[in-house]
Amino acid sequence: MTLRRRDVLRGLVTAPFLAAAARAAGTAPAGNFLVFFTPNGFARSQFGADLSNGALAFRPSLAALAPYASRVSVLTGLCLKSCDLNYGSHENVVQLLTCRPVAPGTYTASGPSIDTVIAQRTGTPALNLAADPVRGDAPFETQISYRAAGVPSPVVASPAQTYASLSAELTSSAPGALDARRLAQRKSVLDFVRGDLATLKARVGAADRQRLDLHLAALREVERKLDASAPVAPSCDATGAQAASQAALPSEQIARLKAAAERQADLIALAFACGVRRSATLVMGAAIGGVDPSGSGYTHHDVTHFCAGDGPAGHCAELPTRRPAIDRWYGDRFAYLLGRLDALGVLANTMVVWATEISQEHSPSNFTTVVAGGNALGLKLGQRLALPFTGNDDAGAGNAAVARDSRNRSLADLWATAQAATGGPVAPFGDASFSSGPLPELYQRP
Fold first, then answer.
1. Same domain (yes/no): 165, 214
2. 196 and 82 in one domain?
């Protein structure tokens, strides 16, 4: 089937409009799920939140989230109970979203991740994106999503490729058909059907006209940002592209990371608004690697462990300022993501979780976790939720016994909460030995 340009545009602009109209008409809200992953844990003294006169007061690293205080909850106390009892640190990234034990040294998941489970149940593919232009040393370091045991989900690191794939689904055209030239044409296509849009607006009410304008503006903005990208020669050699990124100056790496993260965030918001995706992950960096957004020139991992014996020598004095600076930079990106979801009217229907693979100094215990959005799905927001925790949470990789203490709560129960909030069963998630079901302190089914 050959599609005319006018047909292509109709698919792009009317899908999000009709989705918004359906919600406005009283259709039950569709639950979306999104994981924002940053590696290497946090400097927790400045990361998290406290209560001030009953209101959520963010610590410095999360200052950018202040406008969303009533739509965010900060949790402490969750533990990755499935971690290896003998060894486990950054390698736990492969079970972060599966919460199933893995065979030592395999570096792959032993079951499907929560994003895949939600996607399969809702009948839409999971959207798995990356932003980091400098990859890790091994493939597993950037892999948090798995379709099944030992089957990693494909990850798209190019915003242009993400746009092409989503546009193809909306228009039924061939995947990957939108190259840089087609992307440039698409900007002019919006103007090509200006008359059709005027006719459509004349037939709907004022509220629907406003929604249509909102989605058109969002689409134009995505196209503008992608069109402004420097052209990159097509290549099947990912190794060459990675080497070029690693050779870039730190300032260039940071600029690329910021641009890619924000464009991928734009596309996730559009995908949710259009209803072509219900579950997504956005990987900001590699465990045991990653860009240092504070500009040290080292990797994020090295900065994390400056004083732990396995990072650059002689830089311990920088640790108190470098790590919080990295967290603040990622906090700004997370706030941008929430802003895009909110602008397209889908934040209330989207459970967003900011997650990492270690809590502090390789520990799998007492994670600080940020949950945002999803108030229409039954999430209880605007709270600092300090779950009971017993034990020493800074003992490093050998601290798995503390994580498995029956008095401590499981990270798997957060994913069970996501499962229920997006319309799935109210049931444990992952290995049933380590999950009791959704967190009642965070969620109550509407």
1. no
2. no
Residue 11's domain comprises: 1-29+180-233
What does the DSSP assignment read for 122-189?
Answer: HTS--EEEE--SS--SSGGGG---EEETTEEPP-B--HHHHHHHHHHHHHTPPTT---HHHHHHHHHH
Please name the residues in contact with 218: beta carbons below 8 A apart, sequence gap of 6 or more.
Answer: 16, 266, 269, 270, 273, 343, 344
Q: Please give the structure tokens belonging to residue 326.
A: 């990295």
Q: Which regions in the chain score pLDDT beneath 70?
A: 1-29, 85-88, 134-137, 168-205, 207-212, 214-216, 218-219, 227-247, 308-315, 394-398
Based on the domain organization, do 10 and 139 belong to the same domain? no
Could you tell me how far CA 215 lies from the centroid of its own chain? 21
Q: Is 384 found in the same domain as 283? A: yes
- Reading the block at residue 68, the tokens are 């969303």
Q: 388 near 407, Cβ under 8 Å? A: yes
pTM to 2 decimals?
A: 0.85
In the 3-class helix/strand/coil scheme, how is 23-91 assigned residue by residue?
Answer: HHCCCCCCCEEEEEECCCCCCCCCCCEEEECCEEEECHHHHHHHHHHHHEEEEEEEECCCCCCCCCCHH
Asked if residue 317 belongs to a domain, the reply is: yes
Three-state SS for 382? coil
pLDDT of residue 136: 66
